[in-house]
Amino acid sequence: MPKYRQVKVNLRPEDYDRLEREAIASEISMAELFRQSVGVGIPDRRDRNQDEIRLAMLYELKRIGTNINQIARYVNANKAIDRAALDALVGIEEELKRFRP
């Protein structure tokens, strides 16, 4: 049995045009618009890509958090901030700028 089954629908031209405009405005396919309207779905490739991007961002944020903790430990142990710690903080700031929209 096929993984997915197909449903064909006939629409009046004006209804088709209206739905097409709605799909374009929502930046989704006509098929996805229909699936959403009946409450079913197939994972969209863009959703999977977004999940991969989120995971990559979380990984990078975790790395940055680890770096900040190491710097904080270093500063607390030395009771002062030196050039190396300051340079590390500036580097983290630069990395964070890459994630700004």
Give the secondary structure arrangement, pairings included.
Elements: H1 13-26, H2 30-38, H3 45-78, H4 83-97
Helix pairs in contact: 3-4
Structure described in brief:
The protein has helices spanning 13-26, 30-38, 45-78, 83-97.
Describe the structure.
With about 100 residues, this protein is mainly α. The protein contains 4 helices and no strands. α3 (about 45-80) packs antiparallel against α4 (about 85-95). The chain is elongated and about 75 Å long.
Please name the defining characteristics of this protein.
plasmid; Bacterial mobilisation domain-containing protein; single chain; NikA-like; mainly alpha
Q: Could you list the spans in which at least 5 consecutive residues all have pLDDT below 50?
A: none
How would you sum up the major sheet? none
User: In total, how many beta strands?
Assistant: 0
Structural class comes to mainly alpha
Overall helicity: over 70%
List the helices and strands in order.
HHHH
Bin the strand percentage. under 5%
| Integer average pLDDT | 81
Q: Return Rg in Å.
A: 25 Å
**End-to-end span in angstroms?**
44 Å
Instruction: Based on Cα principal axes, name the global outline.
Output: elongated
Helical run tally: 4
